[in-house]
Amino acid sequence: MAQNVASKPSVFGEVFEKESRLPKRNPVLVVEDDRELRESLKATLQGAGFSVVEAANGEEALRLLGRNASISVILLDVVMPVMDGWEFRAAQKRDPELAKIPVVAMSGFQKEIDDRPIDSDAFLPKPVRAEVLIETVRNCCGP
């Protein structure tokens, strides 16, 4: 049975052990307002060999990117307080360097996404299955 990211990363045992031997890439920026989900996404990605930087909303993510634009991919919740995913993407695309960073959007609110699509390189519906998360992020990071 597929595991979602709320499961403990240790359930993936051998997969994570193998993945952790891969060379480190630039960090993944996880932008998620739900602290528990953000921590779970972080643990899942770290278990697969990714380094992770976290932000609780789009505004915080832009501040982090201003200090460290060497991010491999942005994992972006769409519906958040302060600055949502749509506002973040608009600001990101105005900066030529930040616009180059691939974005994987996520949301548990499919109707809002259907009504107002978000421009992203990939989309993951919540809850996110761990193996789908890892594969999607890896695909967006390139070789």
Oligomer: single chain
CATH class, named: Alpha Beta
SS element count, helices: 7
The count of DSSP E runs of length 2 or more, i.e. the number of strands, is 5
Q: Which homologous superfamily in CATH is the superfamily?
A: Response regulator
- Radius of gyration from CA coordinates: 14 Å
- End-to-end Cα distance, whole Å, is 28 Å
Instruction: Enter the CATH topology name.
Output: Rossmann fold
Strand content: 15-25%
* Series of secondary-structure elements, N-terminal to C-terminal: HEHEHEHHEHEH
CATH architecture: 3-Layer(aba) Sandwich
> Main sheet: which strands, in order across?
2-1-3-4-5
Shape: globular
- Outline the biggest β-sheet: 5 strands, parallel
Stretches where pLDDT is under 50 for at least 5 consecutive residues are 6-21
Number of domains: 1
Helix content: 40-55%
Averaged pLDDT: 83
Structure classification: alpha/beta
Overview of the molecule:
- The chain is α/β, with parallel strands linked by helices and 143 residues long.
- The protein has a single domain, classed as Rossmann fold, CATH 3.40.50.2300.
- Helix content is 43%, strand content 15%.
- It has a five-stranded parallel sheet with strand order 2-1-3-4-5.
- The protein is globular.
